[in-house]
Amino acid sequence: VQLQASGGGLVQAGESLRLSCTASGRPLSSYTMGWFRQVSGKERDFVATINWSGGSTYYSDSVKGRFTIFRDNAKNTVYLQMSSLKPEDTAVYYCAAGQVIFPKVSVRPYDYWGQGTLVTVSS
After folding, report:
1. Confidence of residue 100 (pLDDT cuts 50, 70, 90)
2. Which of 29, 50, 26, 52 is nearest to 105 (CA)?
3. For a pLDDT cut of 70, what percent of the chain falls above it?
């Protein structure tokens, strides 16, 4: 599975942004999907995850209520809708796919990773 993340950019605090992650090579429908983020020099942190059908989601406390993960298996794409963005949300965002039991919030269980897309939130 090859994952391509897109949608990052520069926004002001309080604004919204939608990230997309599109897969090629295999259908995403059999995978749990996750979004993670990383600030330079720090570990990659869990943001959100969604099960194969889209019926279950799980979020980190830092984004709960502001971010929404959803997927369209017909389009082989998973999304991260980010609202009420804060400067501390600034990071490179990565999507990941894994045939893992939902939910998984650590990096290791995920088998495939996108290249990352930079989100910068100015104050």
Report:
1. confident
2. 50
3. 100
